[in-house]
């Protein structure tokens, strides 16, 4: 992988060569913009960890600079965004990655992007079923929102009737996982140094995808197809010496995806649905719901949004995701102040098991032009041993972040 201890000399050399080649290709008179985001984060866990070596708190820092070059009146540009984190507790969470290193050329009704980049597909709040281009950086956040940079070539045709994008993905990124001293893990170590692949080409399998995005009246519509290595691994027990470990297994998959967003007055109606085929199973899954916003509640400046989403996976108890028959209820409070203060609180309840639920909170606000604070938290409850949330039942946490932008 690009950004952890398993980075091989060949991969590192390829990345270094690509970085230097991209930077050397930038004309001397290119318009250059530089941004830097840095943060210190303190995370506190409310319960003692399940396994030896886990502690109730840790602190980490990260740095994410970004350099943007543009020339030819903005027709050509290169965006460079590396990322590095140092964690006080988990050696696997101390890692680096190239989030973006991509050249973009904008033509007449078409665009070409090549390099390492991030692509987001999706509309719903509680989970993103259709978002399959980038690999999850799981050591960053348990919600799966943080992604690794993906090598790709993207061609987009931009027309009045919509945008069609084609993706060639020549190199696969393996998922990151917590180490033995980290949280959000099971009793067995995940052996990321010895992954298994269905494809004979392993991480060099050529994945590809296409997506249409357009509008039908007030409805934003996305249709996608992906064929390649499954970003979500299975696990195969194995012995490493005297130690029982889990080897990640990355099979092949084909996925058809649909995402929709309809704006009806103060209502936002959202849907994500997929059909996925793998070597072991075919299944449907969807997440759908709404967000209704009350503007100026009680003649105040505050806006309050009410969210509800239903999560379904026909695999039921065999589903690898947390939401197979679950309901999310939440509220988003927007203060409409100069600091951009917002709070999102949500509860996800399993409709089959009353004792299985989770919840999260996200809050943030600017302090001044350079500083911003964030509060993030996740909470888990499960009394069913074979339910995915059971492994996380003692990993409830709050995280306070102080971010600096310059």
Tell me, what's the shape? Answer: globular
Low-confidence segments, given as residue ranges, are 3-9
Overall residue-averaged pLDDT value: 92
Instruction: Supply the CATH class.
Output: Mainly Beta
Which structural class do the helices and strands define? mainly beta
Major β-sheet annotation: 18 strands, antiparallel, barrel
Termini, distance in Å?
Answer: 29 Å
Strand content: over 45%
What fold name goes in the CATH topology slot?
A: Porin
Gyration radius from CA atoms, angstroms:
22 Å
Number of helices, counting only DSSP H or I runs of 4 residues or more: 1
CATH A-level architecture: Beta Barrel
Count every beta strand, where a strand is a DSSP E run of 2 or more residues: 22
Q: Your description of this structure?
A:
The protein has one helix and 22 strands. The chain is mainly β. The chain has a single domain (about 10-405), classed as Porin.
Descriptive tags:
single chain; 406 residues; Porin; four-stranded mixed β-sheet; 22 strands; disordered N terminus
In short:
By secondary structure, the chain is mainly beta.
Please write out the topology.
Layout: H1 9-24, E1 31-45, E2 57-71, E3 76-87, E4 95-106, E5 110-117, E6 150-159, E7 162-169, E8 189-190, E9 196-197, E10 207-216, E11 219-229, E12 234-240, E13 243-250, E14 252-264, E15 267-278, E16 282-294, E17 303-313, E18 325-334, E19 342-350, E20 357-366, E21 371-381, E22 397-405
Parallel strand pairs: 8-13, 9-13
Antiparallel strand pairs: 1-2, 1-22, 2-3, 3-4, 4-5, 5-6, 6-7, 7-10, 10-11, 11-14, 12-13, 14-15, 15-16, 16-17, 17-18, 18-19, 19-20, 20-21, 21-22
